[in-house]
Design goal:
This protein has 296 residues and is α/β, with parallel strands linked by helices. 39% of the residues lie in helices and 22% in strands. An eight-stranded mixed beta sheet has the order 3-4-2-1-5-6-8-13, with helices on both faces. A hairpin with a 4-residue loop joins strand 3 and strand 4. It starts with a strand and ends with a helix.
Length: 296
């Protein structure tokens, strides 16, 4: 099977590529062209699609994971535009390339995020309503663009609503671990807001599982047993043999982070209903087991 991955050099993309090494994998990247091994190639997807579009010929699956990280910089008006455009432009480029070569892959997966949903302590599945904050707005536009550009180009358009990916070398966990080791770990506000985590193994596992399925539509990539902030913090502290006794008040988070505080204060009680209905078996359902695997 020939699989094309846009954004395949980041932490998640690299992990996914390692799980797909038995297939022919083309990684669309801003790096120079490179043949990594017999099955894996890096292809620079520049603004001139004529240079690289032919690499998409014969592809069975296209997976788009491209997007500017949301937590790296303050959300100025300029940064907000960068965050949104970094998600919309790759969709346009891939769509144009497919038009140029007149090719329709069997499956197209396009990333989104659980930020799509409104804040809620009640369970949210794939049919739940979107929110009205900046993250929700980005996800809504991200998904609409994917549907607009890809729906007529594939039999199965899958929208990957990805939760907070737990990985020992990147993302939230890699940032929290040093603080918790110094006994500076803290609960946030009342700690009741849900943290929609998922082990990186299950993100790659679900994507690989979907490649062999007939699934289409939105799918939540989160653990079926997510925790609220209080329990998450306490379990992380226990995994590192450190006490967690600090608390950062909600108002202070808002003062320090402004609009970005939604990333921490929003309650996202998201459930992976669609993928469970398709009988995917999670490798890591419980946070204790996920932390033990990643921190040992």
């Amino acid at each position: 099977m020939k699989i094309v991955i846009a954004g395949g050099t980041g932490a998640l993309g690299s992990h996914l590529v390692s799980r797909l090494k038995d297939h022919e994998v083309i990684i669309l990247t801003r790096r120079n062209n490179q043949k990594k091994n017999q099955n894996i190639s890096l292809v620079n997807y520049s603004e001139d699609i004529n240079v690289w579009a032919n690499h998409l010929k014969g592809s069975d699956v296209i997976i788009n994971l491209v997007g500017e990280p949301i937590a790296n910089k303050r959300w100025s008006d300029k940064q907000k535009k960068i965050i949104l455009n970094s998600r919309l432009k790759p969709i346009q480029k891939i769509s144009d390339a497919l038009n140029l070569i007149n090719h329709n892959p069997k499956i197209i997966m396009s990333a989104s995020a659980v930020g799509y949903y409104q804040s809620s302590d009640s369970p949210l599945n794939e049919d739940s309503l979107p929110g009205k904050d900046f993250l929700s707005d980005v996800c809504i536009k991200w998904e609409k663009e994917a549907v607009k550009k890809f729906a007529d180009k594939t039999q199965q358009l899958i929208l990957l609503r990805i939760g907070i990916v737990l990985d020992d070398s990147s993302g939230m966990l890699s940032r929290l671990t040093p603080l918790f080791k110094l006994c500076l770990g803290a609960t946030i506000g009342n700690g009741r807001q849900y943290v929609p985590w998922i082990h990186i193994n299950d993100v790659s596992g679900i994507i690989k599982y979907l490649i062999s399925s007939k699934f289409k539509g939105p799918v939540n990539l989160v653990s079926p047993q997510i925790d609220n902030n209080l329990k998450f913090s306490k379990k992380l502290g226990r995994a590192l043999n450190r006490p967690v006794f600090l608390n950062v008040p909600r108002f202070l988070i808002k003062v320090l982070l402004g609009e970005m505080s939604v990333m921490i204060l929003k309650s996202s009680n998201v459930v992976p209903k669609a993928i469970l209905d398709f009988n995917y078996k999670f490798e890591f359902k419980k946070l204790d087991n996920a932390l033990k695997d990643l921190l040992s």
